[in-house]
Amino acid sequence: MYNVLIIDDEEPLREAIRIVGDWDHLGIEHIYEATNGRLGLEMLSQHNIDVVMVDMKMPELNGIEFLRAIEKAYPHLLTIVISGYNDFEYTRQAIQSRVVDYLLKPIHRQDLNQALRKAVDILASRKQSENEFISQNITLNMSLPKLKEKLYLSILDGSFKRQANTTLLPLIGADQPGNRFGVSVLRLLNRDEVRRTRFHGDTELMDFAVTNVLAQTSDERLSCFSFPHPRREREIISVCTLAPGQEEHMALLLAQVTQKAVTNLHGLFGMVVSAGVGQPCADVVELASAYADAKALIHSTDVLKLEGASVLHTAPRQMIKSEEVQWTDRLLLIQKDAQTGQANRAKVLLNDLLKQLASGSVFRLQDADRLIREFHFLLREAAVELGASVSVSSQKGAFGEAERVAEGELSADFTSFADYGQRLTRMLELYIAGAQHAQAGNQPFDISDIKKHIDRYYFEDIKISFFAETYFLSREYLMKLFKQQFGYGIHEYVQKVRMDKAKELLSDSSLKIQEISDMLGYKDKNYFSKAFRNYYQVSPSEYRVSLQ
Fold first, then answer.
1. Integer Rg of the chain from CA
2. Domain ranges for the chain
3. How many CB atoms lie within 10 A of CB 130?
4. How many CA atoms lie within 13 A of 271 on its CB side?
5. Run of H or E residues at 500
């Protein structure tokens, strides 16, 4: 049995797919739904999904961005693309992502089930050959570098099982008893700026360039393999192998190679990097510990001393903790002032907090990350309370993909403490501006206006995003308010109005069912009939006969 995830911001389309899909015959057990790419990624982390059906045009994270995100994080996942836009860019990304099929709206039963059958056949083929190493590689279309990356990641995160992966060990030289292994980790501090200014916003091209630089700076005595971490956007990992004979020099060689790479990245692309080098080890499994040490070294970077220059940590040292600054209470005060309209006082409190941090002896990168996460969380919660559709309430996280806002992009970069302070200040300013905008839009707003619009234009393609943009309110807030007021969700109410109108029109025997379907805004007569039966447990024809 298989599981399918449908990602589309239009509930009627998701419902149509549910209706016309031949799920039982195809052996599909569970059907999950998400309204945008960001929520789709969350569903993938929570459920065992085999096939994803994804719309290309969605809010927050569109189809192209979603496909790019899952290529690295879920390389085995099968995808079926749905689009109402016969656009070359969408088609090209679908081809690059090796999707199973590409369907155009409106979705027809035959096309949908053919695409699902193709996906189920691929899954069945995989299952049949999962114990055959070569067949598995062909079926999954996995290149050798991608396989090595997956293998190294399983070692670094501690999930590697030696007995189950014996045949893979020769790929990384782990079958040779005398080999030594080492790892270095690079955090790209100004990644967003470099991606925008040097690579025209193309993340994949930038990652390729960075790993290529690392490959070219490798020492001839070291065999190094570098790759971006699929779940940590700013992190590049380089795993190196040394053949027997120069074990005592490996730590020095690894440090020299990493230093050279950091220097070249800055010289070629202007990248500012914080790098950590773990201790060499004799067993490949021990790379997990070396990786953790390298990460800890990066976390210990003193933001107060960054000043726009790269930092390399090559050996364990005493970890000096940041001075205890009780920022939680201050953040709560800032949140309260910003939420109640005391914008100037909120900015003063934030400025005082930054001054206190700057006057300390050390402010570690790990603590800087934690402060941003907490500040982001509080602003997001405040925004949701106000029902404000502002940038802070829609961000994926403090270090997520470039956080798009109405005024442009808020970068997650900082290469000095001054940059860090500006980052926090910008977050606060965007929240304040968005909240003020939303509150101003709240004054003339009446939830019954949405009901009146639906009553009048029920035959149109009604989207919650239209109301959210019109009234400057979040989707979640609008749906909650409508449900509280009228006892129906917005999409439920649209369906109710259409079905009530359908009964009225069916009483007129001069109207054909196809005409009624068109009058109600359904593009497909079969979809209308299915929706009617779903709602009243009888088909339109049966209902008309009962009237007679």
1. 28
2. 2-138, 143-313, 327-442, 448-547
3. 12
4. 27
5. helix 490-506
Distances in whole angstroms, Cα of residue 519 to Cα of each of 508, 516, 524: 13, 5, 11
Structure tokens at 407: 């005024």
Q: What is the mean pLDDT of residues 360-365?
A: 90
Q: Which residue from 532, 475, 512 is spatially nearest to 39, judged by alpha carbons?
A: 475
Task: List the strands of the sheet with 180-188, edge to edge.
Answer: 222-228, 235-242, 180-188, 273-277, 311-313
* Selection from 300, 251, 260 nearest residue 279 by Cα: 251
Let me know the angle formed at the C-alpha of 542 by 537 and 546, rounded to the nearest 5 degrees.
105
Structure tokens at 491: 């999409």
What is the distance between the alpha carbons of residues 251 and 7, in angstroms, rounded to a whole number?
48
Spell out where 396-512 has E strands: 403-405, 408-410
Instruction: Quote the CA–CA distance of 452 and 459 in Å, as a whole number.
Output: 13
User: Considering only the top CATH level, what class is 143-313?
Assistant: alpha beta
- DSSP one-letter code for 482: H
Cα distance between residue 457 and residue 462, in whole Å: 8
Angle among Cα 372, 374, 376 to the nearest 5 degrees reads: 65
172 close to 284: Cβ distance less than 8 angstroms: yes
Q: At how many degrees (to 10) do helices 464-471 and 475-486 cross? A: 100
CB 370 within 8 A of CB 361: no
* Token pair 């006969």 in the structure block, residue: 545
Retrieve residue 536's tokens.
């009243």
By percentage, how much of the chain surpasses pLDDT 70? 84
How many whole angstroms separate alpha carbon 71 and alpha carbon 96?
Answer: 10
Strands (E), 142-221: 180-188
**Pick from 393, 392, 399: which is nearest to 369 by CA?**
399
Top-level class of domain 448-547: mainly alpha
| CA atoms of 136 and 246, how far apart (whole Å) | 37
Instruction: Tell me the three state secondary structure of residue 54.
Output: strand
CA terminus-to-terminus distance, the chain: 45
Q: Which fold has domain 2-138?
A: Rossmann fold (3.40.50)
Torsion of CA 147, 149, 155, 158, to 10 degrees: -100
The one-letter code for the residue type at 251 is A
Supply the pLDDT for residue 439. Answer: 58
Angle between helices 11-20 and 109-128 in degrees, nearest 10:
70
Q: Which among 11, 21, 112 is positioned nearest to 58, based on CA atoms?
A: 11
Predicted TM-score of the model (pTM): 0.54
Which residue, among 94, 99, 82, 74, has the nearest Cα to 20 in the 3D structure?
82
Checking if the pLDDT of 237 tops 90, the result is yes
Give the pair of three-digit tokens for residue 392. Answer: 């802070």
Output the pLDDT for position 140.
Answer: 45
The residue among 524 and 15 whose pLDDT is bigger is 15
For residues 295 and 337, what is the distance between their CA atoms, to the nearest angstrom?
Answer: 36
Length of the chain measured in residues: 548
- What mean pLDDT is reported for the chain? 82
Asked if residue 29 lies in contact with residue 61, where contact means CB atoms within 8 angstroms, the answer is no
- Cα–Cα distance, 497 to 459 (Å, whole number): 9
CA distance linking residue 384 with residue 375, whole number of Å: 14
